[in-house]
Amino acid sequence: MRPVYMVAGGVSKFAKARPTVTFQQMVAEAFDAALAQVPALTPEQIDGSVASYFSDHFQRQLMAGIMVQDYLGLCPKPSKRVEGGGATGGLCFQTAWEAVASGRMEVCVAYGFETMSRVNTWKGNEFIALASDVSFDFPLGGFYTGYYAMMVVRHMHEFGTTVEQLARVSVKNHRNACHNPYAQKRLRLTIEDVRAAPMVAYPLTLLDVCVMSDGAAACILASEEMAAKLTDAPVRITGVGTGTDTMRMADRPHGEVLLLPHESPADYKGLKYPGVHSFRAGRTAAIQAYKMAGVTNPPRELDFVELHDAYTSSEIQTYEDLGLCRYGEGGSFVESGKADLGGLVPVNPSGGLLACGHPVGATGLMQAVFAFWQLQGRIGTHFGDSTLQVPKARRGLIHSHAGTGTYITVTIMEAV
Predict the structure, then answer these.
(1) From 35, 69, 74, 368, which residue has the greatest number of CB atoms within 10 Å?
(2) Cα–Cα distance list, 391 to 171, 174, 377 (Å)
(3) Left (φ > 0), alpha (ψ -120 to 50) or beta: where does 203 sit?
(4) 275, 301, 271, 276: which is closest to 286 by C-alpha?
(5) How far apart are CA 25 and CA 117, in angstroms?
(6) What integer pLDDT is reported at residue 228 of this predicted model?
């Protein structure tokens, strides 16, 4: 495999609805913003692309990816559509990495989008619920906030996690987003605000849950030779990992915890793993990415993390899957401030999905763009405010998550 670098990235404004803008135009906003960062790159030098969007239903259009390819002027270059639920953007990023690492392409564009406002909220939730087993779970009234509520109730039972710790995630991420002009929800909240919000599925309130969005993001990846020609601040992709798990949570086994290098069996004596309190696919993806990147102690070797916080509970669960703390310690990790800006490992300095929004096909690529700017030291340039810049950031992690943990990607990015 060849070294692969990210050389540019762009994000459209994420919003509840952008009714006057087509999905093609949203992607063009992000793509043009990325191209502006690499003026030496000509359209002829782009070898191909990967498109990501979650649902044809939201666009009300089959084969939307090729329509974007045409709109961007990239025909007849090769392209493909990647889809994997909430992990669609992360899978897209890794697929573009594979195209360059394999030698097939020198320059590959990864773009993702979703226009979720094109349908009513109740219908959108139904479409999302179809990403569960429609023969078993869906007919019983299965919907995603219900699944995550069940999982966090188990986490609370197993580990003593509290609703105030969940709320602390929402407070942190919305506070961070106040300094991110791309974010959909820029709010200053208290724990009391989060708990007083309308209950969606106990213990998750409206402010524990991300919102549907319209938006797009684009990343440009290149080989080492091309990266040197295009930018003076490339970011190398040093580790990739992907994990999977059964669609139906009832099918998930109990076994031994998959250990990271800084853990031992004694840390988890008697823990039934993964059950429904943890994401085996997330731990699997982390193991692969850490091994490839040479990470042996994640909380000491990662400068920041942008992870998939569709729910406050899933952020806490993911701290543990990524080894930022031991299983069972996720609640105390956020409560202690270790995930804050200036903490041990800042998590979601951008505001995450909770505050930025979640246009599914764009989300994982949005994370990559924000991580790229962090590692370049250019958050202030792009946000107009340096508050969210992690000082001396050299290594970051991005994490995408689908379903109830059925596809999960982890990617390590490092400043050169």
Answers:
(1) 368
(2) 22, 20, 8
(3) alpha
(4) 301
(5) 15
(6) 98
